[in-house]
Every structure is written in structure tokens, then in C-alpha cells.
Amino acid sequence: MSFFNQLRSYSKQSGPGWIQAAVTLGGGTLVSALYLGVIGGYEFLWLQPLAMLMGYIMLTAISHVTLSKTDFKDRPFKLVEKHVSKPLAWGWLFATVLANVVFCSAQFALATDALQGSLGFTDVNPFVITFFLFVIGVSLMWLFSQESKVSRIVDGFIKSLVALIVLSFFGVVIVIGVNGDIALSELLNGLIPDFNALFKPTDSFTEAIELTGDFEGYWSGYISGSQRDIIIGAFGTAVGINMTFLLPYTLLKKKWKREDRTVARYDLFFGLLIPFILGASFLIIASASQFHAKKDSFVNEQAYHEVLDQRLEREHPSLKSLSQDELIHLRAEAPQADKDLSVMLAKRTVTDLSVSLRPILGDGSKVVFGIGVLAMALSTMLVHMMINGYAIGEALGRPNKKKLFLVGAMIPAFTGFISPILWSGQVKTALAVPASVIATTLLPIAYLIFFLLMNSRKAMGADRPKKKALTNGLMLVAMGIASFASVWALLSKVRSEVAYEQYFGWIGIIGLPLLILIGTYSFLKKEKI
After folding, report:
1. Mean pLDDT of the region 139-148
2. Are 43 and 193 spatial neighbours (Cβ–Cβ below 8 Å)?
3. pLDDT category, 61, cuts 50, 70, 90?
4. What is the mean pLDDT of residues 31-43?
5. CA distance 81 to 57
6. Contact yes or no for 17/254 (Cβ under 8 A)
7. 151 to 141, 145, 147, 249, 250: CA distances (angstroms)
8. Inter-residue contact 102 to 241 (CB < 8 Å)
9. Interatomic CA distance for residues 204 and 141, integer angstroms
10. Cα separation, 142 vs 299, whole angstroms
11. Domains along the chain?
12. What residues contact 500, with CB distance under 8 A and at least 6 apart?
């Protein structure tokens, strides 16, 4: 069979890879891609592809483990319990459920913002919107739980949403390019990895930093730290903990077998890797073209003040105790060079980007971005529900029970329904901090679990990788990067000024090496028995 015939055959069977793309092309990717464009311009275009490539390596390992076993009783969760560690298996499941329940509400909030802010539903009560999203989500999950022919409707819908995300932002980039706002040579150079950004600001900021005089060192450190955080964060979050739990169940639902392992790799490549790279890259290009190192670009006043106030606090330690009038005066009297850098470095939202593009796209800019963001939120919301359905069924020992799947899927949908309450203020912090710490800590553990399974004589037997050195080398690189990113994220919590964040940061810092030791010791012991 020719390559193109193979490709056509694989595309007809595809599904699990697209579902993975739907969950990762969500609000987190949106925020990080926008800020990558702001702070790094085109120079960070290499980052998202490389980060997802690491995730792709581990997900292909998960698909290999899943499809090498012919009995449903040997699904990965049970293999982990039997051949690695029961505590790690249940920690993996618990972290997955927690991530779904907490971050699904964020997708409901994102969809609500898109509908109210960009698509003409300004005066609609947010609870009315979240109720309809709840009904849509539960209805589609009911369809997905049915026989394969009916569930294909949901497969097709999710594929369409992912395609819509990519096409919406692709259209924006085409219009920007036609308008002459994209420097093609800089864009191509941005595809070449440059890890110097971990240690120094990109060259675009050099002149602006030099104009700040005595605060040149402050701004260099601020920009370098922000770049480092966004680079490491992208490597740690391209693939989430719940994605590692989801993949086996979507593969098994397709009734794929050992002979379909190649199909699974193609599916992850064309359904996950390519759409993610395109969608994230288009967002970075759009953001970079409008905001990077531009002191006169559109900026949200609150985001601008957050950056400027941090610089002013360095000079005036009592800043937080000033009255509002005193603070306004201090901001007004700040040196222009500091104000310019604060504009350049302020974080942008998709609304800011749509406003900045209005001269190019016209009034339709809000609609174009609104559609893309709504598709992002809907697709990720649906997959969070799907994952939770599988996880709750597994937790109760009945993963094939349709009613349990629906009950599990409804749990994150309910938190989404009340997202106007949950995803705001102190409640948001109280939920998001522990959830992100647990998910961040357990992601390297999930990678470790499948590294151990791939090399398990008892679990895999003759299905262990043939090119062992190459496969293990790639997995170790992915595990190492995920672990480094995890530790970095946890250290940022430890360094926080908020005691609540510090507490959970220390839990993660202590828990990660402890879990690694428990898992490795348990695995080696089981292999010898």
C-alpha cells in the first residue's frame, strides 16, 4: 500500500489523537501562546513544537503499552496496580479527577467570556450560558457512551472543533501577513531552538532596557525570569496528567488491537502533534506581530499596572501601603522608559488581541477570535468530561458501565455550570493552586509509570520495545524535561509571598522524589518476584 493510501486509511480510523488535541488546545495553551508572542516574539516559535514532541513520545509509549495487551483486564490502570505500584495508580487516577473537576470550570468560564465579550451575548446571564453548555456537554457525552456508530458523531464534532480552532487563527495570520505585519525572516529564525532565552532577554528588548538607567539590572532579571518561567512551563504543560489517563480508554473504545499500534502513532502525529503546533504557532505569530517590543501597542490597563507597580515597588518598598491617589501620582511620575517596558511586557488576553487587530480585520476581529476561543473552550470542556467519566468508572471497578461514565462526566460539567462562582477571586485560587500542584507533581510520575511498564519483563514480555536504547533514551529525555519543569513550577509556589501557595509548593517538592522512590522500589520488587 502506498504512503498516500495508508494515510487515507489511517485518517478514516483516526480519533484518539484528535481527542488529545481537543484537551490540550484549551485555555492554558491560549494564555501561554499569547504571552510567548508578547515576551519572545517569533523567537519562541520553536518552543511549543518541541514541548509537544516530548509529550508525543510518551503518549506513543502509552499507546504501545495499551495496544500490546489483548485482554481488557490488562488495561494500563490495572497493569500499573499489578506491576508498578497501587498507590501510584490511585494517585494517577485521583490527580486526573481533580484536574478535570477544577479546570473544566475554567473552560466554561472561557466559553462564557467568548460568548459575552465577542459573540454578542453581552446581556445574557452567565448562569444561563453555563446551563446550556452543561446540557450540550451531557448530551454529547450520552451520545459518546453509546455504540460506536452513534459515538462517531462526537468524534466528528470534536475533530470539527479542533479544525475550527486551527482555521480561525490561520485566517487571522493570513490577513496579518497580507497586511505586511509579519517579518518572514524573523519567523523562520524563530523555528530554531535557542535556550539562551533561559538566561537573558531577547535582543528586541536591549535598547529599551538600556534606557532605564539604574533599573537596567531589574528589567533584565524580570524579562529573563518571565521567559524562563514560560519556557519551562510550556514543557511541563503541553501534555497534562489527564491526557495520559485518557488515551488508553479512547484507544480501547475504538477496539484497536496489537496490529493497530502503527495506526495509533500516525493518529497521534496527525491528530495531536500537527494541530497543536499549528494552533499554538498561529496564536504566537498573531500576538508577536501586534505586541512584541512595541511601546505603543494596545494594552489592558490592569495588566500594564501589574508590571509597572512591580518595578515601582523595587524603588518604593512601601508601595502597597500608599493611598489610591498617591499610587496614581507615583505611576504618572514614573520614567517613560519604565512605562514603555511595562506596556511591552504586560500580559494580553484574546480580547486585547482582537482589539489590536481591528484596524486590519475590521469589526469582524472580535467574531473571528470569539469563534476560535469558543471552539477551544467547548472541545476542552467535552474532553475533561469524557476523561472524568472513564476515571470514575475505573475508580468504582466498572469502567464499561455507561451510567457510571455519564455520572462521572457530569461531575466536572456541574462545576462548569457554577463556574461564575468557582472561577473567580479567592475561590479560584483555593481550587486552582492545589489542583495545579498535584497535577504538576504527578505528571512526571505518570511518565515514570509508563517508562517502567515499557521495560517490564512481566507486564510486556516480548512486546517490550525492539530498539530499546533509542526508545528508552527518548523517554528519559521527555521524563527529564517534565521533571525539571515540574520542580521549577513547584519552586515558584515555594517562593510565592502567599503562605497558601507555599504550603502546597512544599508538599509537591517533598512528594515528587518520594513518589519516584516508592514507584521505582515497588516496580523492582515486583519484577523480581
Report:
1. 85
2. no
3. very high
4. 87
5. 23
6. no
7. 9, 7, 6, 14, 11
8. no
9. 47
10. 43
11. 3-299+348-528 (1.10.4160), 308-344 (no CATH)
12. 429, 430, 433
Q: Report the distance separating Cα 16 and Cα 153, nearest Å.
A: 14
Average pLDDT, the chain: 87
Residues 6 or more apart from 232 whose CB is under 8 A from it? 198, 484, 485, 488, 489
Task: Find which of 115-119, 222-226, 256-260, 386-390 is predicted with most confidence, using mean pLDDT.
Answer: 386-390
What nine digits make up the cell of 112? Answer: 462564557
Helix then strand then coil, % of the chain, to nearest 5: 80, 0, 20
Contacts 24+ apart (CB under 8 A), 210-216: 211/337, 211/340, 212/335, 212/337, 212/338, 212/341, 213/335, 213/337, 215/311, 215/314, 215/315, 215/338
Query: pLDDT digits over 108-138, tens only?
Result: 998 998 898 888 888 899 999 999 999 999 9
The span from the CA of 493 to the CA of 487, in Å, is: 10
pLDDT at 416: 93
Confidence of residue 11 (pLDDT cuts 50, 70, 90): low
pLDDT in tens, 394-447: 999 888 888 999 999 999 999 999 999 888 767 776 777 787 778 888 889 999
Q: What percent of the chain has pLDDT above 70?
A: 96
C-alpha span between 215 and 213 (Å, rounded): 5
Q: How many angstroms separate the CA atoms of 226 and 511, rounded?
A: 26
Q: Is 10 helix (H, G, I), strand (E, B) or coil?
A: helix
The whole-number pLDDT of residue 359 equals 79
Q: How many CB atoms lie within 10 A of CB 496?
A: 15
pLDDT band per the 50, 70, 90 thresholds, residue 498:
confident
Query: Is residue 465 left, alpha or beta, with left meaning phi > 0 and alpha meaning psi from -120 to 50?
Result: beta
